[in-house]
UniProtKB/TrEMBL annotation, chain A:
The keyword Disulfide bond does not apply. It comes from Billgrantia campisalis. Its cofactor is Ca(2+). Keywords: Dioxygenase, Fatty acid biosynthesis, Fatty acid metabolism, Heme, Iron, Lipid biosynthesis, Lipid metabolism, Metal-binding, Oxidoreductase, Oxylipin biosynthesis, Peroxidase, Plant defense. This is Peroxidase. CDD domains: PIOX_like.
TrEMBL record, chain B:
It comes from the Bacteria. This is Cytochrome P450. It comes from Billgrantia campisalis.
Length: 602, 303
């Protein structure tokens, strides 16, 4: 029902080889083959569904589901219409038996707050000097597309996190809300691990811009003054080019939680891009109405975002020849872009002609974002604590401020001092933090959640606690379950002797190390901005988001996207999107190989 | 996901791992347990091996009897009732092997002790004086592995008389009783697999804090495969082509359980061929784990 193959000979051969030698230690051609084998093995051994019964088919929205994405993500797979829809369950990358959440003393051992303070606190900012701050902005922009656990459970008894005697937490106790439980569980789930609902559409459908419900979609398309849906198929932008504000004074978007200037810029940029696509499509299809133009532009915009993520953002973080080839091959195949653009696809093979346009395949389980994917995507150290905003025209200082002053409803106030172009320029020329221990933003360790929540949390504590609560295995166990060798000692985990001592003092046993901490402590492969452990889940899920989605596979055709839409996707990337809406930024990107690398200053 | 291997005259096999497909095919009366020769050469060889290993006194062991086999259902019900009573009374606690199992899981005894102890404990649920030792457990292991070992090794086992001697030893100890033979020759390996997994889990930090359901889900060991033979031609959504009599269907139970974490599937709870020992095994494993955790704690306290 979900494919008829296994990991194959190549997968089996490399499985044995990798017990002794990892893929990045091989010469280029073998390393590439090894990556192909790794992905194949992961597809067949590390995808698990948590749905015990087939979810009910959702009601159809009033659009042609063959031609357009639905607002809630239903009817992407026509044979399983609920697959990937908003408010369906997260899947897993490890066997369900391994995913019982930790409870009792175990949940707080060692205390997540102690880990936060002693292993994560940023003493001095460690920059990732090959990247710019659009990297974390983009990352969060994507995450809001793929998943959210929704708001936490305010009714249930809170977790009480043990504090050290010398803890500087301003309150006597630290309590954390529990994750909201899955309301769809039935008797079939008895005895099985807890499950959690993804409140966003799980597809790569730009739902962070367009919303995960019809109601939200209509909201972002509506003129707030008239209350009327824009008739031309565009997203609403204020006359000054900014997004409108919601009732809490935060810019309105499909998803606008945890808002900060980076998200604001990405959302504004791609709302502008949507409107530009609408203008282009209207030239080709003057007789089509606003609804048709909106839905087609959404398809094109979502595909362009997926392309930028695949061939620009990811290779910026994984800057090795193998991954540059690998990620481009995901989109165009190993024959690459020029061949694709001159000859099109040569076969259904995703290897030769890319995943995009190949036949849909869910491999071992129905499509869903997984808990483990959300765990390895905890990359808060990328966010700086301090921002320096400068004028695009002459690089002169406009303002220096902390993260809190560029977040939530304060984001909007920034734009009274500077233009969107200045803000983009400032982030494009600043470095994010490196993904290592002792580099967690201090602001987020005492962070007031934006309206309507207004609770103060230590996000580092919460990050550690959530993995334990949701049954994400700890680091060593996790590695074994994804067919990676586990370190036998702290010295094998990291080559930093100081970290080895600190980790041992807190954990005692390397088997106890949390996944997040292990990933931050691990020495990554050369050229990688993050750990090999996290990379295994990326290589699996990045391909899966494309391969499972009908609109990136079977229906990635001119008939569905329109000829002009396909050309738009082919001809554009991050640089051209920025250049279209902020032409004054073009010189700053000249000669820069990747828009996520630091831009030219001056 | 189903995989079809079909070479005319040689092999015709459908392998199924998806839990829904396993249940669907298991429930189809056109498939049955049958060791009668049929299908291509490899199908026949595979069935012949099963017959050589698991047919005693011209009668297949209970887990290989067809769904309509005479007396199967009543014996199955009787066995289930007996084992349920054992579970209710925790009758294993009086057995000398129980302490060994607890100690081995708590890592206070060698892992090698698990096999003979588990075999003895199971055997004595059927025959009071059942005696197991290293030789009987080794014989049971070789017998259980026989259908899966490579051809030269299988041939060597036959020609050297090893297979015959193993079967005779197990048959004698079980006094010819098919249920005892099945429990001590075949089913024991799943129990030992589960106990080995528990022992391994017990050595990891935080294991004692795991909820019971998590321990059972992680450690339960189930048969790798269940074999069915096609009796009547059939078309099924699980197979890309029509199945004909003599075709073999391999239900890859272990993989299906691993992917779904479905405990009912592990025991084929809703099936005509369900495992009669479900309650017994779950209660026994739970008891051993709890005692082992307590033993570990008291061991730590004593240090």
């Amino acid at each position: 029902m979900f494919g008829q193959r296994g990991s194959g000979l190549l997968g089996r051969v490399f499985r044995r080889i990798n017990r002794r030698r990892q893929w990045y230690r091989f010469p280029f051609p073998i390393a590439v083959l090894n990556l192909v084998a790794l992905r194949r093995n992961l597809r067949w051994h590390n995808l698990y569904s948590t749905e015990r019964e087939r979810p009910q088919d959702p009601e159809r929205e009033e659009i042609d589901v063959r031609q357009f994405r639905t607002a809630d993500g239903s009817y992407n797979d026509l044979a399983a219409p609920a697959m990937g829809k908003a408010y369906t369950r997260f899947g897993r990358n490890v066997p369900p038996a391994e995913t019982f959440g930790e409870t009792g003393d175990r949940l707080m051992t060692p205390s997540p707050r102690v880990i936060s303070r002693r292993l994560m606190t940023r003493d001095t900012f460690v920059p990732a000097t090959t990247l710019n701050v659009l990297v974390p902005a983009w990352l969060q922009f994507m995450v809001h597309d793929w998943f959210s656990h929704g708001s936490n459970d305010t009714e249930a008894e809170r977790y009480e996190v043990p504090l050290d005697e010398d803890d500087d937490w301003p309150w006597e106790r630290m309590t954390v809300l529990r994750s909201r439980r899955d309301t769809t569980r039935s008797s079939a789930d008895e005895g099985h691990p807890a499950t959690f609902l993804n409140t966003e559409t799980q597809w790569w459908d730009a739902s962070q811009i367009y919303g995960s419900s019809l109601r939200r979609q209509r909201l972002v398309r509506t003129d707030p003054d008239s209350g009327e849906l824009l008739p031309d198929g565009k997203l609403y932008l204020r006359p000054d080019g900014h997004l409108p504000l919601d009732e809490h004074g935060i810019e309105l978007a499909g998803a606008n939680g945890n808002w900060w200037v980076g998200l604001s810029l990405m959302h504004t940029l791609f709302a502008m891009e949507h409107n530009a696509i609408v203008d282009r499509l209207r030239i080709e299809h003057p007789d089509r109405d606003g609804e048709w133009l909106f839905q087609k532009a959404r398809l094109v915009n979502a595909a362009l975002i997926a392309k930028i993520h695949t061939v620009e953002w990811t290779p910026a973080l994984l800057d090795t020849p193998e991954l540059r080839l690998g990620m481009r091959a995901n989109w165009w195949g190993v024959l690459d872009e020029h061949f694709y653009r001159s000859r099109g696809r040569v076969s259904d093979s995703e290897l030769f002609s890319g995943i995009v346009g190949s036949p849909v395949d869910h491999h071992a389980a129905p499509y869903a974002i997984t808990e483990e994917f959300s765990a390895v995507y905890r990359m808060h150290p990328l966010i700086p604590d301090d921002f320096s905003f400068r004028r695009l025209a002459d690089d002169s200082l406009i303002k220096e401020c902390g993260l809190t002053e560029v977040a939530g409803s304060l984001t909007q106030a920034l734009y009274s001092d500077m233009s969107l172009g200045d803000a983009l320029y400032s982030l494009g020329t600043s470095h994010p933090g490196a993904l290592v221990l002792h580099n967690f933003p201090r602001h987020l360790q005492q962070h007031e959640k934006q309206a309507p929540h207004h609770r103060v949390i230590d996000l580092a504590t919460v990050d550690v606690l959530r993995d334990r609560e949701r049954g994400v295995p700890r680091y060593c166990r996790f590695r074994r379950l994804i067919d990676m060798p586990a370190p036998g000692s702290f010295a094998e985990l990291t080559d930093n002797p100081e970290w080895q001592r600190q980790l041992e003092a807190i954990y005692g046993d390397v088997e106890e190390v949390d996944l997040l901490i292990g990933c931050l402590a691990e020495t990554p492969p050369p050229g990688f901005a993050f750990s090999d452990t996290a990379f295994r889940i990326f290589i699996l899920m990045a391909s899966r988001r494309l391969k499972s989605d009908r609109f990136f596979t079977d229906d990635y055709t001119p008939e569905v996207y329109t000829r002009a839409g396909m050309e738009w996707i082919d001809n554009n990337g991050m640089k051209s999107v920025i250049g279209r809406h902020f032409p004054e930024l073009a010189p700053r990107l000249e000669g820069v190989r990747n828009a996520f690398f630091p831009w030219n200053r001056g | 996901m189903a995989r079809r291997v079909h070479i005319p005259g040689l092999i015709s096999l459908l392998e199924v791992t998806d839990p829904r497909e396993i249940r669907l095919l298991d429930g189809d009366s056109r498939l049955d347990r049958s060791l009668a020769p049929g299908g291509g050469v490899i199908n026949r060889l595979r069935l012949a091996r099963l017959r050589r290993a698991f047919v005693f006194d011209a009668e297949p062991l209970p887990a290989l009897l067809g769904r309509e086999a005479q007396g199967r259902e009543s014996r199955h019900a009787e066995l289930e009732r007996r084992l349920d009573e054992c579970a209710e009374a925790s009758s294993w606690r009086q057995d000398p092997a129980f302490k060994t199992l607890v100690e081995a899981v708590a890592r206070q005894a060698e892992a090698e002790a698990l096999g003979p102890a588990a075999q003895g404990l199971l055997g004595r649920r059927f025959r009071d004086g059942y005696h197991a030792d290293e030789a009987t457990f080794a014989a049971a292991r070789r017998l259980n592995d026989y259908p899966r070992v490579n051809a030269p090794r299988a041939l060597l086992q036959r020609l050297s008389g090893r297979l015959r001697r193993d079967r005779r030893l197990l048959h004698e100890r079980a006094q010819g009783d098919p249920m005892t033979l099945h429990a001590t020759g075949v089913a024991v390996h799943n129990l030992v697999g589960a106990l080995e997994a528990m022992r391994s889990l017990a050595g990891t930090p935080g294991a004692s804090a795991l909820p019971r359901a998590a321990v059972l889900a992680r450690c339960l060991s189930v048969p790798e495969t269940l074999l069915r033979q096609v009796q009547v031609p059939l078309s099924t959504p699980c197979s890309p082509r029509r199945l004909v009599p003599g075709d073999l269907v391999l239900l890859r139970l272990a993989e299906g359980v691993r992917s779904s974490g479905d405990r009912d599937l592990a025991f084929m709870a809703d099936s005509w061929g369900r495992c009669p020992a479900q309650r017994f095994i779950l209660a026994l494993l739970t008891d051993i784990w709890e005692q082992a955790v307590a033993a570990s704690r008291s061991g730590e306290g004593g240090r």
